[in-house]
Structure formats: C-alpha cells, structure tokens
C-alpha cells in the first residue's frame, strides 16, 4: 500500500479512533502527555501503514503499533519501572461508587499503576479481544496472556479495594 494518506488510511483510522485514545488515556498521566502520545501514535501509524499487509484485522495491527509506540514513549521518558508480576485468580468487584465517571476514573487510575505490558494486556482484554488476538498484538504466547490476565485482575482488585476503603 502506498504511504500517502489517502481515503483508505483515514477511513481505517476514523473507524478505529477509540484505540489510540484508550491507549493514551492509560499510558499518559497528564492531558499534555496524552496529547503528545496520541500525536506520536498517529505519526507512527502513518509511517507504518505501508507495512500493513492485511493478514490481520486493521484494529489488531493498530493496537500493536499504538501499544509499541506508547511503550517506547514511556521508556524514553523514563517514567516506568521494570515489570514485576504476581499470579493468582480473582474477579474485579463492582466499585461501590455512585457516580459512573468516578468509577471509570478509579479504574483508569488502577490500570495506570500497572506495568506497561500489563496495561496493554488488560486494556485489550477489556476490549473483549480473545487470548489469541492479545497474544498476536503483544508478542506473548497464548498461555502467558492467560496467566498474566489472572495476575493483573488480582492486582487491580487489590488496588481498587485500597482506593475504595476509607
């Protein structure tokens, strides 16, 4: 595909515009950082568009480009520490919060406290992608995705409980 920004590229971006916005919300701490990250993701999508070979869905390819961009951005800014993982099974409880916006904000804050890769995995899971799709996007094995999701959910549950307990 040509690298020029044509109707196809713009249509695909517009059809999937929620992906970079969600990723920037999770990886960017401030509004300015989110805007910078979003701009960088758009630039990287444009640069990489000719490598999109249509063997996978555009949304899968877009997640991969945007997540890699976010991880690189965070690594360059030196704001994230190395990963540490602990495993266990759990369910995220419904927050006892009356205001839905506050509940969403609490969840985003809890997700923001995760390591960069774990943020990506839980976000893809919340988008209802299956383990195979998550594995393809992140470069992990299907079983590693499964194990990580169990651990991530437990970590989020603990974080939400702490935030909701006075």
3D structure, described in words:
The protein has 166 residues and is mainly alpha-helical. It folds into two domains: 1-80, RNA polymerase sigma factor, region 2, helix turn helix motif (Rna Polymerase Sigma Factor, Chain: A); 82-166, Orthogonal Bundle (Arc Repressor Mutant, subunit A). It contains eight helices and no strands. The protein has helices at 7-15, 18-27, 31-48, 58-77, 100-112, 116-126, 131-138, 142-164. The radius of gyration is 17 Å and the shape is globular. It starts with 6 loop residues before the first helix and ends with a helix. Residues 79-97 have low confidence and may be disordered.
CATH architectural group of the largest domain: Orthogonal Bundle
Structurally, how many domains make up the residues? 2
Please trace the helix and strand order, writing H or E for each element. Answer: HHHHHHHH
Annotated CATH topology of the largest domain? Arc Repressor Mutant, subunit A
The gross shape turns out to be globular
- Report mean pLDDT, rounded to a whole number: 80
Structural class: mainly alpha
How many whole angstroms does the radius of gyration measure?
Answer: 17 Å
Oligomer: single chain
Q: What's the CATH H-level homologous superfamily of the largest domain?
A: Winged helix-like DNA-binding domain superfamily/Winged helix DNA-binding domain
